[in-house]
Structure formats: C-alpha cells, structure tokens
Design brief:
single chain; about 200 residues; alpha+beta; Jelly Rolls; 6 helices; 10 strands; about 25% strand
C-alpha cells in the first residue's frame, strides 16, 4: 500500500500551462490554481440568477448563445469562459464542445466515480469545489463493484478538494491510449446546508 501511494497522479500550478500535463503518462487530473477575487462581484451577480445554461458547438457558437441567455454585469466572467473554452480547444485538439454553466443547489454526484469521456474541464467559480482521489487513494475493485464511497476511498483523511476558481482538466475512461486510469471524483455535498455553487463544465462533443 505504501508503494502505491508514492505515485502522484496529478499536477498543479499557478500557471495555465500546467493543464498541458494532463497528456502525461501518469497524470489523470491537472489543476490550474488561481485567485478569482477580482471577479467576486460579477460571479455573485451570475450566481444569484439561478442560471441553467447548456450549449454545444464551436467556441463562438457557445459564446454567442451565452451572451443571449445569461446576464453579466461586466466582461470579466464572459472573458474567463472564453479563455477556458479556447484552452480546452487547444488541449483536446477539437473544435466542438458541450458546455454546462449553472447555479447548483443539489448534490450532483454523491458517489465517487469516473466519467465516460476522454477529457473534461471543470471549474467551480463559487462554493465548494470538486472532490477527487489521488490514484494511491483509490480501491479500484470497490469502484468497479459499485461499492459505497467508504470502500472506494482508502484513506478518507486524504480526499483532495479543489478550491473555488481552480480549473481542473480530468481524464475520463475513453482517453485515447489510456495511459493513466480515469480520475475518480465526486461533487461536494451541499444540499444539507443550503449552499450554492456556480459551476462550469466543458466536455468534448
């Protein structure tokens, strides 16, 4: 067990270039750590709208639809979403995406799981961030057997959690070549304490 825990299956840093590490052999989550305090007022304005925006297509298709459906009280949040769409386009080498941008007030995914996709970009702009497991902290047999979280997690004190504003790029089950195993993650529990989250999710289309 000790030898397994030595394997570090994630990279993190304060420069967006760290997201390129998702394509490395043993990495299944790359994290761009950042301070979003300068956009706090704009983000709160969007959060309180209770939005549920979904769109697909090219970067320009999605941004044009976003401008029509969501009200912004500045350009900062919209430009940040543009930046993340363009970043994901570069990472995936694709031109068509599915985007979900919403105020969330429920527990989206309570169980630790992997995604049936190749790559996903996720950012929690407001509220508690995504929970995820380093590869050394996963019981893959329990995961496959659909066991409860208590059996999937080897050490509950070592569950990782992203901070608000952090950008995560996650490897899924059908990542080409599948060098690293898909990252195991779940949404934080918020329904019991009436917390709101403002989340952005981008998937390859």
């Amino acid at each position: 067990m000790q030898n397994k825990a030595i394997v570090k299956s994630w990279h993190s840093g304060e420069d967006m270039s760290v997201l390129n590490s998702i394509h490395l052999f043993d990495v299944n989550v790359a994290i761009y750590e950042r301070d979003m305090s300068k956009l706090e007022d704009e983000l709160q304005y969007v959060l309180e709208q209770g939005i549920d925006f979904r769109s697909s297509g090219s970067v320009s298709d999605i941004l044009n639809a976003l401008k029509v459906k969501v009200q912004f009280n500045g350009n900062g949040v919209l430009q940040d979403i543009r930046l993340l769409l363009e970043c994901f386009r570069d990472l995936s080498k694709l031109d068509s995406f599915r985007l979900f941008f919403a105020t969330v007030q429920s527990d989206m995914c309570r169980r630790f799981h992997t995604d049936m996709n190749d790559l996903r970009l996720f950012c929690t702009y407001c509220g508690p961030g995504t929970l995820w497991l380093d590869e050394g902290n996963v019981n893959r047999k329990a995961l496959t057997a659909l066991a409860p979280n208590e059996e999937i997690v080897v050490d509950e004190s070592n569950i990782k959690q992203a901070s608000a504003g952090d950008v995560l790029v996650l490897k899924g089950e059908v990542y080409p070549g599948m060098n690293a195993k898909a990252v195991v993650h779940r949404s934080p529990s918020i329904k019991s304490n009436s917390t709101k989250r403002l989340v952005l999710r981008i998937d390859t289309n």
